[in-house]
């Protein structure tokens, strides 16, 4: 694996060469690191699924540099244009009706008639996309089902032997994945995955924005038909068992090898205590969440992880709750 610097133009041009020849490059975004390949090259796209161990029925997001690229591959309803103008570049992915153009192979969207597009805000990735005029398919750069990577060393540890290069762009600003909304031909907007752009942010521009309601909650991943593909109940899982305890309640006692993860710094704490923020700020909690879980997962003193579950749902906390519920969900 080549280690390249995102801020260095010569390194970016090397990354572009690797991508053009069908290689895999881990790239920084403002949310989490992505595992990128040329979205117009179906054999490169299939290596993404192989490297992650990801089933091919779980579609990928295509990262672009400008609106013109979006017009080449998707139909853009009026409300989608408005969301792009408002939130791009930034942590918003928009699922749109695909055009019949063959430019992006159907494997990218797992055969669905829609395509997920995102114009990322990280300056190094923006430069790379502009300089290469690329369409980059990129899921989060972690083995399928594991905790998403928010720092270059996370990518190196779990994907280093399966990629051609890693473009270092430092720690990711938001630390959780982009908000995903679907916009259909009737101009309806549905949030498929909560993230840094909140429901309240979206409601200012899309007054009827709805949250996707998974009414099949009782069913296991293996049996579900995935009307919102890829929204697995079990995801972001550390290799050690993770349990949740309600905010401001006493953490469960018992196993001395349990690590406790608090939302804010507790007044008293033991050796195996960690916290996600100094004062409970949702943005800080989100920023530190995956990094802290990975650190604990690698800590040989720890056997189990107990995480304080936020009671509030405001702002980005709704995304934090979503990720924690999936991290604690049983497999299957
Ligand atoms: O912040 C992010 O979005 C990161 C960075 C790298 O951009 N990417 C990311 O990708 O989180 P991934 O593959 O880990 O999650 C993308 C989600 C998956 O759950 C997938 O099923 C969903 O987006 N998705 C992709 N295309 C879709 C489509 N056409 N319809 C519905 N959901 C789709
Ligand atoms: Mg992912």
Can you walk through the features of this model?
27% of the residues lie in helices and 19% in strands. The chain contains 9 helices and 15 strands. The protein has helices spanning 9-20, 42-52, 67-73, 78-87, 123-132, 152-159, 199-203, 282-297, 317-328; strands at residues 2-5, 25-27, 34-38, 61-63, 92-97, 114-118, 136-137, 165-168, 179-183, 189-193, 210-211, 241-246, 258-262, 273-275, 304-309. Helix 1 packs across helix 5. The structure holds threonylcarbamoyladenylate and magnesium ion (MG).
- Specify the overall morphology: globular
Order of helices and strands: EHEEHEHHEEHEHEEEHEEEEHEH
Q: Report the radius of gyration as a whole number of Å.
A: 19 Å
Number of strands: 15
List keywords for this structure.
alpha/beta, binds threonylcarbamoyladenylate, four-stranded parallel beta sheet, 15 strands, binds magnesium ion, globular, 27% helix, 332 residues, 9 helices, eleven-stranded mixed beta sheet
Give a summary of the structure in a few sentences:
This protein has 332 residues and is an alpha/beta fold. The protein is built from nine helices and 15 strands.
Any chance you could write out the topology, listing elements then pairs?
Blueprint: E1 2-5, H1 9-20, E2 25-27, E3 34-38, H2 42-52, E4 61-63, H3 67-73, H4 78-87, E5 92-97, E6 114-118, H5 123-132, E7 136-137, H6 152-159, E8 165-168, E9 179-183, E10 189-193, H7 199-203, E11 210-211, E12 241-246, E13 258-262, E14 273-275, H8 282-297, E15 304-309, H9 317-328
